[in-house]
Amino acid sequence: MSYWRDFWFGWQMKIGRYPVLYYALFAHRFPFNRLRVNRDTELCIEGFPRSANSYAVVAFKLVNPETKIAHHLHVPAQIRRAVALHIPAVLIIRKPEDAVSSFLIFQQSEKVDRYLRAYIEFYTALLPIMEKVLVVDFKLIVSDVNRMIQAINQRFNRHYRLIDRLEERQEEIFTKLEEYNQRFFGGGVHKSTLPHADRERWKAEIKARVQQSPLLETAQTIYERFLQRAVQ
Fold this sequence. Notes:
By secondary structure, the protein is α/β, with parallel strands linked by helices. The chain is about 55% helix and about 5% strand. The protein has one domain (about 1-225): Rossmann fold. The chain has a 4-stranded parallel sheet with strand order 2-1-3-4, sandwiched between helices. Helix 4 packs across helix 10, helix 6 (about 95-105) crosses helix 11 and helix 7 (about 110-125) packs parallel to helix 12 (about 215-225).
């Protein structure tokens, strides 16, 4: 099973660098048709998997439920099409060793270099347009997602609502995250979007392998380039 998950993600990432090709192949298929950028999209939120994509979308929709958001396809084509259509685009970044380690657990894969290459390909494809998107780091989202919303409003001249009493509503956000996880992935510690002791132990073991990969330096360099432009 891991082989096919690895193959499917790698193939999708290759195609996902090219909007015309990607949308021609996937645009009308579920769930892509509900998540893709189109002319009715009001906001695009995308990033490499396991980078707080779900938290960002769930928290934002908690107080802005009517907003049409493109999200969770995890391909550069989403951001590139949003920019081409002049749709506000949020690009989420996370340290490669953390994002890749977490995604390896999610995929139940041991292909460290394959997923580091995917990380590199994802963000390299977006380097030419990084000045046209709002870059937000994982740490800012999970520490104060209102700062992301404020930055969207300021950068794109929008008036999206902020979350009142954010700390008090964390449980509500986490509940919705678990509901999302159950709906799309059927649960399981390795699939959860929330912290878990067992997964953190596995992650520590896998991260040690990621840190030994010669590709990590390249991934980290790309991450740091985007981080320089990220919301502070």
